[in-house]
Each structure stands twice: as C-alpha cells, then as structure tokens.
Write a structure and sequence with these properties.
This protein has 374 residues and is of the alpha/beta class. Helix content is 35%, strand content 20%. An 8-stranded mixed beta sheet has the order 6-7-8-3-9-10-12-11, with helices on both faces. A 4-stranded antiparallel beta sheet has the order 2-1-4-5, with helices on one face. A hairpin with a 6-residue loop joins β1 and β2. α4 packs across α5, α4 packs parallel to α7 and α5 packs across α7.
Length: 374
Amino acid sequence: MNNENVLEVKNLEIDFETFAGPVHAIRDVSFDLKKGETFAIVGESGSGKSVTVRSLMNLLSNNAVIKNGQIMYHGENILEKTDEEMQKIRGAEIAMIFQDPMTSLNPVMTIGDQVSEPIELHQDVSKKEAQERALQLLKRVGIPQAEERFKDYPHQFSGGQRQRIVIAIALACEPEILIADEPTTALDVTIQAQILELIKELQVFNDTSIVFITHDLGVVANVADRIAVMYAGQIVEYGTVDEIFYNPQHPYTWGLITSMPTLKTRGKLLSIPGTPPDLHEPPKGDAFAARSEYAMKIDYEEEPPFFHVSDTHAAATWLLHPDCPGVEVPREIAERFKVFEDLRKEHEIEINTAHAVPDQAQRDPKRVKEGANE
C-alpha cells in the first residue's frame, strides 16, 4: 500500500424520494481510498454503507437524488459521467462483489459465459481467448474441476462456490478498485474464512484497492488497513484497524465492539439499545444521542465536528471536546486502551530500531488479526 489516492469521495449527500418525503440516506460523507489498501466501512443495517458504495459505480435507484458532493476517480467526477461513459468503467476499472451471489448471477447463463462476458466487452480479445481466460480465473478462485463445470449453471453450485464465481467475474478485467458489499454474509464461518483469504490473495496478486462493506467487525479485523464507522448516513469515526479496535473514541464504536463475542467474553454480551433514527427527519445534534448512555445536553442540540485523535484517526463526538467531563468507558474498551498503549510502545521501539538497524524492525502481522479475538 502507498499514499497515492485512487479514489476520493467529498461531501457526498444522497436523498431518496418517497411518497412520505425525502429520505436523507447519505449525509456529508467524505473518505479516500489509497492504492493497494483495503478500506472497510462498518455499521448496522440501514446505516448507508451499501448506498455509499453503489454511488461509486453510479448504480443508484431511479428515486435517488445526489444533492451534493463529488466522487473523484483519476481527476474526473464519476457523478458527472453519462451512463455510456460509466459502462466503460464498470467491470473494467471498478468492479463489485454483490451481497447475494444467487441473485447477482444470471440463472439462465452458464458460469463460463458469465465470467467471460466482461472480458469480451472490455478487452479486445476473441470469444475463444475470453473463455480461456475465464477458465483460468475459475481455477484461480478455487472452483474444482473447472473444465468440466464451465458450462454448468449457478443453481448447480454451492453457496461458497457461487461466491467464488462472483469474485471471478469481478476480477475478470483486473479492475483497479474492487467493491466487496458484504461478500460473506450468507456463508458459514469456514467458507467465510476461505473467501476472505481468497480476496486477500487476489488483492496482492492484482495490486487492487478494495472497499469492503460489512456489519461484522470480526471480519474487518482480518482484512482491513483502515476502517470507517457509519451511523445514520454519516461517518462517525475513522482510523487504522489498530486505532478502531484498540483505541475507539465514539460511543457507537464502543457499542459495536462490546456487542462482538471474543475468546475472552464472559457472561452476557452488551447490546446497543433502541433503533437507528428515521432519516426522513434526521435528529438534531448527534444522531446517536438517543441511544447513548454518554449523551450530554449538547448532543441533542449541536452536531459534533470531527475531533482528531491522531493524523489518521478522528471521531465525531463531543466526548473529545477539551471541556467535556471525563466518562467511565465500558470495561472491555478500557482493556483495549491498555492494549493500544502497548502497541504504540512497540511501534516506537520498532521505529527506533529501524533507524539503528533497518533490517531488524519487523512488525508482527498477527497482532491485528488477533484483534477480533481479544
């Protein structure tokens, strides 16, 4: 991963027109995606994750209205492109792995034709060459007996195999950006782990940038470099995977983490009370205030700005204001703060060691993966 931005989303606002009035689904969302990184967006169902990433490919429904914002890709605003121009980008430069492979695959086309179709559409190759490349892709994503099954239909494959086929279609033209919209939701834990490992391997092979959407923090611990937490159509916190898992600052992020089972969980899991707000009329102030035991009077009156914790970490909560009284954080979060201090000390030692003896400074890559189980 390097610091080159391949995609920048700036102040995005999206409404959906309904009979009951406009739904303010996306409210001033901004983020960037760097080359070769995995940027995860997490949050409850209805937080705006899928709408955000579908806007990256201009795949919004007919009642969607983009009120404001830009999506910059190679210096051009995707939102200003015609459908004909977007057809050249979709699949070729920006591709998506959809949530449910059974509904995203065409039931009356063989999987061989479905994988080779984007290659024929976007690259100057013959049908035979496209099919040969499609066959190699099916082998690469782990479809057993790919030659014999090339002419099979989607219903003849298991759920995990169908998801592998969808991944093969998405990677057929080696896109620069891959959007994975909850690609493991309908899979059991074993197959889920295999799919995540496959995505990581293919990312390294193709040097692809990934936007990964999920409501499962345990999943992103294994795949993400940076994480954005979404709530009620807004990003409320963002940071590196270490910062979000071990130094979370927003009460909503605390709620997501403490509701996640780990190997150290004892007794009942905590849950976030209430339900997300109705975005026909978004609440005044902090949208999470009504569900937060840490809400103060100002949370119901003014929307909090982002307070920066570090160069890479910020959270939109009044708890970070210098004048805010101290609060007692959940026990599990306090324990994670201690782990973060240890990680930071290790990092400082590594930096000092790297300056003295460059070849000896190596960070343990397992630490982040263990975040889901600590």
